[in-house]
Amino acid sequence: KDAQWASKGDASYDEVKKLASQPTGEVTIIDVREPDEVAAGMIPSAVNVPLTKFEDAFNKSGGANFQQQYSFPRPGFDDKVIFYCRSGKRSAQAQDIAKKNGWQNTRNYTGSWLDWVSKEE
């Protein structure tokens, strides 16, 4: 458990870029946009759990069908997770839901997809 990690605050483009290009499995990057938005592209190595499904996916007792539904294992309560969306608002909501339900090792990529695309071009 890395208590320092979550206290670093919001995730930056440089940090997310490094994690996306060299995934170690230590950090899960979750895109909380809707599937039609994700179809236009997403950060490499990221996985998708739409915010509209988030309350069910990240509730304390749930998760029984998580892997079947989202094609990746639900992160454990101590696992490191970075959330992003289009502009950082929905990912902040997702982070709040996750924290409320026991995931403390979470951070928000506040620039999100708009920041990523502007820096990748």
From TrEMBL:
SUPFAM superfamilies: Rhodanese/Cell cycle control phosphatase. One of its GO terms (cellular component) is mitochondrion. Residues 23-121 form the Rhodanese domain. PROSITE patterns: RHODANESE_3 (PS50206). InterPro entries: Rhodanese-like_dom, Rhodanese-like_dom_sf. Signal peptide: none annotated. It comes from the Eukaryota. GO terms for molecular function: thiosulfate-cyanide sulfurtransferase activity. CDD domains: RHOD_HSP67B2. PANTHER family: THIOSULFATE SULFURTRANSFERASE RDL2, MITOCHONDRIAL-RELATED (PTHR44086), THIOSULFATE SULFURTRANSFERASE_RHODANESE-LIKE DOMAIN-CONTAINING PROTEIN 3 (PTHR44086:SF10). This is Rhodanese-like protein. It comes from Meira miltonrushii.
